[in-house]
Amino acid sequence: MSATNLSRADVDHVLRRAGVAGRRAGGRGSVFSEPVLLVVKFPPTEEIFDQDGRLLAIFRAAPDNPSFLRRVLLNTQVSELVDGRDQVLLTVRQQGPIFHTVGVDGSDAGRIWTRHGWRKSHSIEFGGEIIGSFRFAGTRRYSVLGADEVELGRISQHRNRYKCNVIEIDDAMPETLRRLMPVASKAVFDLTATKT
Question: What's the whole-model pTM score?
Fold first, then answer.
């Protein structure tokens, strides 16, 4: 499933740079349950690892992804999050600044609205309500906030040999918000795509 093998030294180096000190307990081996995720961009995929360097899932182009010309002209891209057994966990349709997420059963799994510009807040919605946001917190760092504006996690971007996002998820983060963290990472890659 993986295009690459990360060494334990690579994982430790990136986590140390992100300020993750030591191993955090609480993960159950799923992309939606781990307290720390390492998302590595290997175009055209994004691979998601746990804090021990085990591959949990991959974002890849969906079979119904538009042709290159349509992606450029319509600014639309469709990808799916698949686990190690090649089971689709989520489908993400990115159209401009909106990341619309659909569950396996076809139900709405949430939406992320990004806003390009300085120090913007990017809203995270589920069921038509804002359940959280992520905001600029410093160079290539974003705070993930709940609906009550309390920090529930962090996303930071680092470069080692690869472009990586580290997602730190607090235990208090609600399940609906937790399930959208891989998509929030995808949005951060999009926001920082023009930066070096």
Answer: 0.87
